[in-house]
């Protein structure tokens, strides 16, 4: 954990969708570790590293708002996906129309989103492969990645704009000077946030992993919560 | 595309409903906490798509064969272009790899289909799309990202009762003994100036093949799309300012929030209700926008960022 990073991320709206309520989206109370990982990856990521979230600081009051939108549904499907079969047919010169009519495939869906959020993220990365893409071995691979990340953080540069759960909820980000700001008064004390998504295990057939999130004075110690969950479940 | 772009888009509405809320009987969307008006990102994207359909109606997908980008639109609205789109696409032979005796990997096919969709469809190239394939990798993340538009000030909702002198069914006519009058309601806001932020990622543009020409079309769509979206419900909507921060670096040279903070929009007289764009002042670093940068001009800011004022 010697090469940790600290940063702030904030925005107007956020939606960390609960997987059990995603037809009509309901956000978790706070950012999930996988959401935080997505923010970091939007700023800097290479296949040689893997971001690990250590702590999430909740720095703004938890407030919700409701938004209902006309969304596209494809018959017999849960989302607006382009059928691969139709694309294949069109590529071969088929004459069937390849498009969807949004007003015919309409589905109105509500989202319960968070308003005016601000988080502090503490994270580090694991080095999966010290080699460069060309196979050479740099002198200090961890310092290289750390420097690149911190340079981008200070400069405001990013691979793509980070977002808070959904792409319409764009995030702003910056370094944190000194200590993290303190959490709002009403988040002081201890709060059990229940089981939350920790991350998706892409190596294991996209299996979602959950953990029992506990927030103490606005801070979720992800690694400690993970350990406590493992102990509780006896695995 | 070699640059990152962050942009501010200002548009207004007069005596109209810019974006109805399906949860509230089609009332204009408002943030219940603050009373500010909202226009969703998808509402604006719909209009961009419609503009591209209208402006490229003759050339839809035509260029795809030459390897140049096509301008077809995947997510359509029937009302905009009610014609058949039964068009034959000719593409590279998808069976080629199989014939050559190479492995017919599903990944290959997905990637080919993905690239083909990007090449033919402007909206897939710009905003992205999800293709239904076995795994998660058939996803296209578009370079253009829009946020919700929010009004500068809280908006006032007006409800208007309207009458019509015809009924739809004979039964209704009989019930009214031939009087044939029904009441309807429509909702407007007298005036609202909305501000929305957008981001364009150069690395994602490289991934989908979103080109500088596509970017030009996107700016054109934002500039003109309200002119082709007139309806009884909308009232008068206009694009008022499009301020584009162009970064020298493809990953960006400055934090977006710092750039956005430099543009302030405020009511000229806080005691008078706003009813026109002229009731607002847009400033760049405290200087009136028109003086700081006239429409169509470009201004060099510090840190290798250029401000282009397109409207």
Break the fold down into its secondary structure elements and pairings.
The complex is a heterodimer of chains A (235) and B (311).
Chain A lengths: L3 E11 L10 E2 L6 H11 L5 E10 L5 E9 L8 E3 H8 L8 E2 L4 E22 L13 H15 L16 E4 L14 E12 L5 E10 L2 E3 H12 L2
Parallel strand pairs in A: 2-7
Antiparallel strand pairs in A: 1-7, 1-8, 3-7, 3-11, 4-7, 9-10, 10-11
Chain B lengths: L4 E12 L3 E2 L5 E2 L7 E4 L1 H15 L19 E2 L19 H4 L6 H15 L1 H6 E5 L6 E3 L2 E3 L2 E6 L3 E7 L5 H6 L6 E19 L1 H7 L3 H13 L11 E12 L8 H6 L1 E5 L12 E5 L2 E2 H4 L5 E3 L4 E5 L2
Helix pairs in contact in B: 1-7
Summarize the structure.
The complex is a heterodimer of chains A (235) and B (311). Chain A has 235 residues and is of the alpha+beta class.
Folded structure, characterized:
The complex is a heterodimer of chains A (235) and B (311). Chain A has 235 residues and is of the alpha+beta class. Chain A is built from 4 helices and 11 strands, in the order ββαβββαββαββββα. In chain A, strands 1, 2, 3, 4, 7, 8, 9, 10 and 11 form a 9-stranded mixed β-sheet that branches. The longest helix of chain A has 15 residues, at 141-155. The two termini of chain A are 24 Å apart. With 311 residues, chain B is of the alpha+beta class. Chain B is 24% helix and 31% strand. The two termini of chain B are 22 Å apart. The model of chain B is unreliable at 96-105 (pLDDT under 50). Strand 5 (81-83) of chain A pairs parallel with strand 6 of chain B.
Largest beta-sheet details of chain B: 9 strands, antiparallel
**Rg measurement of chain A, Å:** 20 Å
Q: How would the global form of chain A be characterised?
A: globular
Low-pLDDT runs of 5+ residues of chain A are: none
- Number of DSSP E strands of chain B: 17
Number of strands of chain A: 11
H/E series of chain B, N to C? Answer: EEEEHEHHHEEEEEHEHHEHEEEHEE
